[in-house]
């Protein structure tokens, strides 16, 4: 494990050398980082990491994005996620897998009361509709690994929430 300074990511190019696969789940929130900080982390850092990984020999890049990602969206979150998807695809990996999960079900260290309430509701909904509105982070992680072990056809593969659930069971 190598700790890098994302503000000086280019100085850490050696950490990206010699890896066949790259996994990226980097992200923050607008509330935590502000609008500019959110864009810097969720788009700029991710795109730069992808470029460094490709230059270092990475062949398959796996990006966790978001349901509804769209570079043309009026909403900052969805627009930035769509922009970074486009930037990562443009890097030119042999394989690029983009996961677009719905609401992530997880335990966080910091307090997010509204998110906690939403998660409790979505856990109940998931009992009846397990793949519709949410996905446990463990399932996303398993799906990320499964898509590398069985990359399938095509240069770019996008997995939406239902496919993430299916891959996460593989």
UniProtKB/TrEMBL annotation:
Superkingdom to which the source organism belongs: Eukaryota
Record Pfam families: NAD_binding_10
Any one of the GO CC terms: cytoplasm
GO molecular function list: catalytic activity
InterPro entries listed in its UniProt record: NAD(P)-bd_dom (IPR016040), NAD(P)-bd_dom_sf (IPR036291)
SUPFAM superfamilies in the cross-refs: NAD(P)-binding Rossmann-fold domains
Domain spans labelled NAD(P)-binding: 2-151
GO BP, one annotated term: import into nucleus
Subunit structure and binding partners: Monomer. Forms homodimers during oxidative stress. Interacts (via N-terminus) with elongation factor EEF1A1 (via middle-region); the interaction is direct and competes with EEF1A1 binding to guanyl-nucleotide exchange factor EEF1B2, thereby inhibiting GDP for GTP exchange and reactivation of EEF1A1. Interacts with nuclear transport receptors XPO4, IPO5/RANBP5, IPO7, IPO9 and KPNB1 as well as GCN1L1/GCN1 and LRPPRC probably through their HEAT repeats. Binds NCOA5/CIA.
Protein name per Swiss-Prot or TrEMBL: Protein HTATIP2
């Amino acid at each position: 494990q190598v700790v890098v300074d994302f503000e000086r990511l280019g100085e850490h190019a050696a950490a990206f050398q010699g890896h066949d696969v790259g996994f990226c789940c980097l992200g923050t929130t607008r509330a935590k980082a502000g609008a500019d900080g959110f864009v810097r982390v969720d788009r700029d850092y991710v795109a730069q990491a992808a470029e460094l990984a490709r230059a270092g020999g990475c062949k398959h890049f796996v990006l966790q994005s978001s349901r509804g990602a769209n570079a043309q969206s009026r909403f900052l979150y969805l627009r930035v996620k769509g922009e970074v998807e486009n930037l990562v695809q443009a890097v030119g990996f042999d394989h690029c897998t983009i996961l677009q999960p719905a609401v992530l079900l997880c335990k966080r260290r910091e307090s997010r009361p509204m998110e906690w309430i939403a998660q409790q509701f979505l856990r109940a909904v998931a009992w009846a509709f397990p793949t519709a509105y949410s996905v446990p982070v463990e399932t996303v992680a398993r799906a990320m690994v499964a898509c590398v072990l069985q990359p399938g056809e095509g240069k770019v593969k996008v997995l939406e929430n239902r496919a993430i659930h299916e891959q996460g069971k593989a």
